[in-house]
Amino acid sequence: MKRSIRTYCVALSLGLLWLSGCSSEKDPEPVNCADSGLQIEIDNVKNVSDCLAKDGAVTASAQGGQGDLLYSVNGVDFQATGVFSGLSAGNYVVTVRDVNECEVTTSITIGVVGSSLVINSISTTSAGCDSEGGELVVNATGEGQLSYQLDNGTFQSLNTFSGLAAGTYKIVVKDEAGCQVFAQKTIFNGTSYEQQVKEIIITNCAIEGCHNGDQGANLNWNVFANVKEHADNIKKLTQNGDMPPPDSNQSLSQEEKDLIACWVEDGALKN
């Protein structure tokens, strides 16, 4: 494995590129979002007027970060102001993002005037890499018998959903009066960098002439911050068979490829 990667790196002198790693060109230093000073505050929350109304609102403000800031209440759609209206009852995660894509979040609840229905918390069990062992347990309170819905499924009396793959799910809770509140929750694969992925990367990539620092300190994959910076490319190249090179006599097992992919999909955490 080591010899094949060295050979592949030498091929860069012929004009081939590989992960911007085994070349003399250095990538920009990764941005340390912990030093951004980005902070978010919730200035106002307006509850909806009745059970199925969509007249809730939230106003957020932020400071710190770099450049123009963008705001979101769903993690997908971002806008230039922290004012959101036309919202239904439920639990929201308000996000602010700067030009370096550094983000901070905070959770808020928009309730229903005159109703005690609320989702207090949702606990999760990891799914396992490329598996469906995930579970969601919803803790909610309200008037009468509550029912629970996962995504667009049917409502059920049980507050537990099992057999789930990694992903983000929408949970709706309904009380006897027909009031509804929702929340989103992410189930992770649960892949550990320290226990499952680190050795794969260190053994196969952080070697002499390649990602051991020979090509620059920021390309040393013995350093976690550098691995995280290149995580998406590592996933791409291992999945398509370009790492290790296809003409070598060695390759990563499918299990090793899956572990790398699952770890990256979980957010390339230092776990």
Question: Which descriptors would you attach to this protein?
Answer:
271 residues; three-stranded antiparallel β-sheet; SprB repeat-containing protein; 3 domains; Immunoglobulin-like; signal
User: Biggest sheet, strands in spatial order?
Assistant: 1-2-4
Radius of gyration: 23 Å
What is the count of β-strands? 12
Query: How does the overall form come out from the CA principal axes?
Result: flat
Topology as a string of helices (H) and strands (E): HEEEEEEEEEEEEHHHH
Average predicted local confidence, pLDDT: 86
Into which percentage range does the β-strand content fall? 25-35%
Structural class: alpha+beta
The major sheet is characterized as:
3 strands, antiparallel
Question: Which consecutive residue ranges, at least 5 long each, have pLDDT under 50?
Answer: 1-27
Number of helices: 5
- Overall structural domain count: 3
Helix content: 10-25%
End-to-end span in angstroms? Answer: 26 Å
